[in-house]
Amino acid sequence: MTKSRLENVICPFCGCLCDDIVLELEEGRIVANENGCAISKSKFLNHLKDRMNTPSVRIDGEFVSVDLGKAIKVAAGILASARRPLVYGLSSTENDAHREAYRIAEEIGGVVDNTSSVCHGPTVIGSQESGEIHGSLGEVRNRADLIVYWGANPQFAHPRHLNRFVRAPGIYNETRELWVVDIRKSVTAGVADRFIQIEPGHDMEILGTMRALLRGHTLDVEQVGGLPIASIHDMVQTMKATKYGILFFGLGLSQSRGKHRNVDAAIRLIQDLNQYTRWAMLPMRGHYNVTGANKTSTWQTGYPFAVDYSRSYPRYQPGEYTAIDLIRRGEVDAILNVAADPAAHFPGSIVSKLSKIPIINLDPKQNMTSLLAAVNIPTAMSGIEADGAASRMDGLPLYLKKCVEPPPGVKSDRDILRLILKEIRRSGS
Hints:
The protein has 429 residues and is of the alpha/beta class. It is 37% helix and 22% strand.
């Protein structure tokens, strides 16, 4: 029996992109995952479960297995004949696949959007208005002495985040204080040094109050957002006195009332704190390469998501060219879905409209979207069966390794997208 070990493998699950995974292989199969969290172990060890084995096309309401060439032709035909096609997803695949998706969107005059439009889209918009105060996760681990999670619960969403970057002793700082700001006591709050419970929908008011107190203003109120003014003042003074602080924030901030205005207020608070000490701010990104999707979109189109090519040049307008808004208005007449599962995550009213739109679904596994699709094309799993680059939540680019061979006949996302683009151009010539 042939055995081998792969070290320093990057986990393609969440935005942490943990790069210390050790895999054990027997006869080309993954049999053990060292260092990974429970979700990482499940992803690697079960990567062959629930797979789509062959391409399929829906004919008279039933899925019929076809060869890859037939599936490519049907997919290209649907996209080429559509008046308002949408390319969506991209957050769970590597950067070269993104490039091919943008080329398809430009070729067919469609819209390209990634999953950040339903999660950290407000974060991107807030950053566009006020800038970014980024630091790296390495800096956090080695220098930070105060860490604040605001509207985030990494113990569930990013299981190794605390152990790798927050609780681990650093080069310059072996101890640090951990705060959690949230509307309810989460699992992460249970392990924090301080839990600060606020009222739902009052994030922006609290952040504005913190800025005012930091600047020395006196406020004639007793409490804001469920917090006594004295408590907010104490928070501000502690944050001002720290040597290196980091604010991690999640959807509890970016998707609560205020949305991008909340993020804008948090950015401005961190900017103000940097007049006294060193602070940075990072979003807790979910899908392992959603940060990469925003970056590659910006590199290729000039905009991070919600990009429209209908006039043969890129235009950007969140709320108009974002996937949910397009589908809600009934504009989309074809969807190329890459490495995402919108049927499982979009609102019910939008999913009911999805069922009426022809979907070309590229994914390694069966999912809710595959049940609605007109064409399903199985792909290799990036970071396990295909290599490529991805960006960690702090923007650091990392190279995903190919660990094992994909099932016979299964190609990577980038190769499938290249074939679709080639067929679109061939049929249009």
